[in-house]
């Protein structure tokens, strides 16, 4: 995700168990974790999880925000192609509009529908994604200015987490930004969600505790690692061999 790493004293305030709307009648829906520890590879998800993902995808289609687990931290998702929905993400996070958001998709092929990567950038996408890596490439015409803060490049994120991948597949491109107010610690458990994010999201998907690591942000064309996180050494070595 694209915000600060989680700190021991900077977690968001708890607003309850995250189980409201379990019967479809409350403000939020939360999905109980179905496994111990976060998965590290794409896999099929159980039927009850798929049902919750489908409801989250429907919320995204309606322009709403959702919270979902990844292999790093919890993310705040909205339709990445809808400027109004993206604006609501900035508002919920209190994020400076000059700081772009990442573009979450379920596959490299989905990313190529909305971007124009060079041969090197495409090779980087295929080498390191899905995974805790954000690869910066040239955006296509479908990517709105508000997402990239007016820049002609966008960070591609393909999370290596079955729930996040299934959500991306079901909802189409979504925002890939951490589910916390800017300047506060990233969220590893739903209980850590701050009130602003909890109130802004229509659906909360509980995938258990996430590792809390940051993604590495890399711009292959310039050989620049903008943020060192997971897999940074492997990415640096790969760039040196190009």
TrEMBL record:
- Catalysed reactions listed for this entry: L-threonine + hydrogencarbonate + ATP = L-threonylcarbamoyladenylate + diphosphate + H2O
Biased composition of type Basic and acidic residues is found at: 17-46
| Residue span, YrdC-like domain | 50-231
Q: Which PROSITE patterns match?
A: YRDC
Where is region (Disordered) located?
Answer: 1-46
Q: Name one GO biological process term.
A: tRNA processing
Q: Name one GO cellular component term.
A: cytoplasm
Q: Does the keyword Nucleotide-binding apply?
A: yes
Q: What is its EC number?
A: 2.7.7.87
- Which molecular function terms from Gene Ontology are attached? ATP binding; double-stranded RNA binding; L-threonylcarbamoyladenylate synthase; tRNA binding
Q: Report the subcellular localization.
A: Cytoplasm
Spans of biased composition, class Low complexity? 7-16
| InterPro entries given in the database record | DHBP_synth_RibB-like_a/b_dom, Sua5-like_dom, TC-AMP_synthase_SUA5
Q: Which UniProt keywords apply?
A: ATP-binding, Cytoplasm, Nucleotide-binding, Nucleotidyltransferase, Transferase, tRNA processing
Q: Which NCBIfam families match?
A: L-threonylcarbamoyladenylate synthase
Q: Which family does it belong to?
A: Belongs to the SUA5 family.
Q: What is this protein called?
A: L-threonylcarbamoyladenylate synthase
Taxonomic source organism: Halopenitus persicus
